[in-house]
Amino acid sequence: MYTADVIGIRSMLVAACLDEVGDFYQRMDLERSLLDAMVLVVMFADLKARV
């Protein structure tokens, strides 16, 4: 998280290779993209709020 703050990263994007992988990331609170269901994203601000 510190490095993300220093260089200005705001989110993390994941490209799932299988539906099961996408489901796993969704259970970890990543959100599916509206354009591609196999792409999931999470904002670092949301991750910080959980810690």
Describe the structure.
The longest helix is centred in the middle third of the chain and has 9 residues, at about 20-25. The model has no long low-confidence stretch (mean pLDDT about 90). The chain has about 50 residues and is an alpha+beta fold. The radius of gyration is 12 Å and the shape is elongated. The chain has one domain (about 1-50). A hairpin with a 6-residue loop joins β2 and β3. A 3-stranded antiparallel sheet has the order 1-3-2. The chain contains 3 helices and 3 strands. The chain has helices spanning about 1-5, 20-25, 45-50, and strands at about 10-15, 30, 40-45.
Round the mean pLDDT to the nearest integer and report it.
91
Strand order of the largest sheet: 1-3-2
**Count of the separate structural domains:** 1
* Estimated radius of gyration: 12 Å
Terminus-to-terminus distance: 11 Å
Number of helices: 3
Q: Which percent bin holds the helix content?
A: 40-55%
Order of helices and strands: HEHEEH
Shape: elongated
The largest sheet is:
3 strands, antiparallel
Number of strands: 3
Low-confidence stretches: none
Beta content comes to: 15-25%
In terms of structural class, how would the helical and strand content be classed? alpha+beta
Structure, briefly:
With 51 residues, this protein is an alpha+beta fold.
Features:
51 residues; alpha+beta; 3-stranded antiparallel β-sheet; 3 strands
Topology:
Blueprint: H1 2-7, E1 11-15, H2 19-27, E2 31-32, E3 39-43, H3 44-50
Antiparallel strand pairs: 1-3, 2-3
